């Protein structure tokens, strides 16, 4: 299993541009999450999904959109990039009903908005 | 806001035990204590979790006080590869809604020195 994969690894955007951060997991997990991590800080939850077709806001959802059309994929969309969205973005997944319900994280996408 | 308090940094000599404390004085009866770590530039990694009994796995041991208001993560023989930020998190286990989501604070930066 590849686990949780994210693309791209790095991206530089200009203010006002849009982009989609891709996240895929091959563990058949129902739950998926998007976090952002600013320098020197802990992770903050942006959006999460408990299954295909179901998404909900986390702590910092403004400026982002998500969709969950399949179990495997959970893309994060930035419509109008702003410098405040410069951050490292992590996707994670977890299995409903598993013994530990631990979250498995991807390697992250480092985004810079100039 | 995170429900836990951790020291911002700690040092440990290679080969010695690393004892990382965490205060969670407002923990409720159905909340578990989880530990994750984040090695530089990587996604967080699950380490261990517990409710009230001490737990041990191949990575670490978790000691929770009887009143559950604090806990200690123990890495029995720290190596240079254990240098990371360690996050102590309290959360409801196996809950399908937002109450089960992880809330990351700033964690403890553990530096293992040769």
Describe the fold and architecture.
The complex is a heterodimer of chains A (114) and B (114). Chain A is mainly β and 114 residues long. Chain A is 0% helix and 49% strand. Chain A has strands at residues 4-7, 10-13, 19-25, 31-37, 43-51, 54-57, 64-66, 76-78, 87-94, 104-105, 109-113. In chain A, strands 2, 4, 5, 6, 9, 10 and 11 form a seven-stranded mixed β-sheet that branches. Chain A has a four-stranded antiparallel β-sheet with strand order 1-3-8-7, with no helix packed on it. In chain A, strand 4 (31-37) and strand 5 (43-51) form a beta hairpin. The model of chain A has no long low-confidence stretch (mean pLDDT 92). Chain B has 114 residues and is an all-beta fold. Helix content of chain B is 0%, strand content 46%. Chain B has strands spanning 9-13, 18-23, 31-38, 45-50, 55-56, 61-64, 70-75, 84-92, 108-113. In chain B, the strands form two sheets. In chain B, strands 1-9-8-3-4 form a five-stranded mixed β-sheet, with no helix packed on it. A four-stranded antiparallel β-sheet of chain B has the order 2-7-6-5, with no helix packed on it. In chain B, a hairpin with a 6-residue loop joins strand 3 (31-38) and strand 4. Chain B starts with 8 loop residues before the first strand and ends with a strand. The model of chain B has no long low-confidence stretch (mean pLDDT 90). Chain A binds chain B through residues 4, 33, 35, 40-45, 48, 50, 56, 58-59, 90, 92, 96-98, 100-108, and chain B through 2, 34, 36, 41-46, 49, 87, 93-94, 96-98, 100-107.
